[in-house]
Amino acid sequence: MSIQIQKIGIIGVGTMGAGIAQIAIQSAHDVVLFDAKAGAAEQAQEKLAKTLNTLADKGKFSHEKAAEDLAHLSIAQQIEDLKDCDLIVEAIIENLEIKQKLMQQLEGIVKPEAILASNTSSLSISAIAANCSQPERVAGYHFFNPVPLMKVVEVIEGFNTRADIVDALTQLSTKMGHRPVKAKDTPGFIINHAGRAFGSEAYAILNENVTPFYDIDRIYRDGIG
Fold first, then answer.
1. Residues with Cβ within 8 Å of residue 113, at least 6 apart in sequence
2. Is 209 a catalytic residue?
């Protein structure tokens, strides 16, 4: 039986967390926002409301649809309020120790079948899950900024991650209108790993006077997107 994800908790409501929340509520998933900073979740909720209403003003969808989407959004006053979520996505600071402690804390709060996911861009998923009692339910779920416009998401399989959890996150990505790409737990995963070469090679081309910088920019932009 496949894993059903309807209620999603998001920890960390900066640009990435808010972006993930937006695509989740727009695909009729219930989202609970939590941030350790007082008032941050409320500010993110207000900003999301403004964003959706602005899009409605531009005719992207109706104001009724915006209101329906925003009805799926709520605020957790404390982290324990995430206990009923099917999936938790953390989008907090890129610090391994802090993420490890958060995952351990969440294990004492959420239901046993809940998925714990990290939006980390480069930290090892296996390392993030290393101190968990159930490391098999921890996966990477790496979105790109801005989330609503960047339609790809990396679903990262840690050393212990269960296959059905990878499948569930892959299916969720499609429901949210994104293209999922499965990746192994390797530094930089796929996109950041490959992308690092673009900058260094561009500088090498410039340093060797192969072509002017504006042509390098044009080729990178128009030729390879």
1. 3, 86, 137
2. no
SS3 state of residue 215: helix
pLDDT in tens, 182-218: 999 998 888 887 777 788 888 888 999 988 888 888 8
Q: Is 142 a catalytic residue?
A: yes
Extract the tokens encoding 225.
């997107």
Tell the residue number behind the tokens 């350790």, with chain if given: 36
Residue 157 bears catalytic tag: no
Phi, psi torsion values for 111, nearest 5 degrees: -70, 155
121 flagged as catalytic: yes
Quote the CA–CA distance of 89 and 48 in Å, as a whole number: 18
Check: CB of residue 153 under 8 Å from CB of residue 181: yes
Look up the pTM and report it: 0.90
pLDDT in tens, 22-79: 999 999 999 999 999 999 999 999 999 999 999 999 999 999 999 999 999 999 999 9
**d(Cα 131, Cα 129) in Å, to the nearest integer?**
6
Cα–Cα dist 34/75, whole Å: 6
Q: Rounded to whole angstroms, how far apart are CA atoms 133 and 152?
A: 30
Find the catalytic residue in 27, 53, 121, 160: 121
